[in-house]
């Protein structure tokens, strides 16, 4: 594992259509770490992830494993960082196998086709994620939890060590949320992955993250361990939420409390 | 749906180890369809020739083959000089239109994309009309040969049209729907057709030449036309077929394609140019023939698979066979008169389009 941090963001400023979305964000994610970005709607969480993933031009601001992202060629970057979007497009008629094979794109020469190695990698990933029996199934017919596993499989097939997850659990019930996050955590251990995620459910976010970053109005307003970030004061101030924070086994638990009229 | 029940691998069925790709049986079916269309197309006509003899005579065109077809010298001339160029042109045009349709559907991630509906054909039509009307080509009443300027004008016109449609359809921003693109295509088509009508009004001496071309006829085809279309068709075919896998990657969206290391916009421009070139070549040879680009790729997708590595080559083959056979209908159904082939494809394509619309409703809303 390289000594350089997996992600280093310095003074990242992004404006979309003249509106500033990120107004000078700093962020460091150490290799092997799980960092979750939280923040109210419109805080710029997804934009931050897109910039780290190379989907937005962010000249000079983003460095991945010590290399400025602008210095990486597209295919090189795709071997370093894999993104699972909030609600990935599910092409009609595409099988699970073919979908996961798309993850091998950065290894397939332009206009070329998949090698035996690519197929072997994909089969190995499918088995590891307990998806072996699904490979022929049409992706569109899978349930939400199964699909999320397939999206992860595609990202793993990409062979990247940095995984960006944008709201990985937003479409799932509570049981499947835990299942998917447990899986991500297990894979992080087995493959030495670094995880940068955005999440809305604060309790679950706090239970899995090593560190959390609270983003509000395009700025980092708090960063640290879940215990340092998930405080009643910070959440009241930036989410305008009335919550009680209770101590749990794996981190603070955030419980919404109805305001007294 | 019960995921648990369906997730278990059925006994005896091995896990899929092969990615989606063109199965040899489908490739063979496509080639067979082209050969059947070729023999049927050449055999049928005012003088019906026995298909066996026609097949023998066609084989004789290959170097080193000398079969006795039993046809008279005059009949051989009918085969090689009259019917064959027409059928070959039909094959080329059908293949191009279907391939372009399949390609546009992938590039725009839009099941309704078709050279006709995107305004590409109208753009080519306006450009060709301008060349005929302003250039005085074919003022003697009918276009006999195809001037070299026509495919070029058609290409410029089709690129301009698809550019306009794309820009208009993208005006909705990130949240644009596939329907937006088609509405833009309709608007662009209407606009360009108005321009064409205006040109025709001002140059009424070329109306007949333009109309006989517009309605899409293969009647006047000779080897000259085939040779003029062929280089464009080959170029389009090579470029588009090489990008089948990239179109599969594009189907998951631009963001995903970018994070997988592709340059979606660059691929998109290249493929739009290639498909428009093929469309322009087809349109300049035979006028506006609609719906081939939607009927064929959708049928292929339904039957053989949804990967563009399957859709594109099979659309080329089945599109070729489809148009050559449609031409047989066009020239025999009301014999001795000929129905313009564009009318036949539109009669078939209209209802088919409604069908696609119904199945694609999910995508459009």
Automatic annotation (TrEMBL), chain A:
Record has Transport as a keyword: yes
Superkingdom of source: Bacteria
PROSITE patterns membership: ABC_TRANSPORTER_1, ABC_TRANSPORTER_2
Entry annotated with the keyword Nucleotide-binding: yes
SUPFAM superfamilies: P-loop containing nucleoside triphosphate hydrolases
A single MF term (Gene Ontology): ATP binding
Any Pfam family matching the protein: ABC_tran
Cross-referenced InterPro entries: AAA+_ATPase (IPR003593), ABC_transporter-like_ATP-bd (IPR003439), ABC_transporter-like_CS (IPR017871), P-loop_NTPase (IPR027417)
ABC transporter domain location: 7-242
Assigned keywords, A-Z: ATP-binding, Nucleotide-binding, Translocase, Transport
Stated name of the protein: ABC transporter ATP-binding protein
Organism, as annotated: Micromonospora costi
Taxon lineage: Bacteria, Bacillati, Actinomycetota, Actinomycetes, Micromonosporales
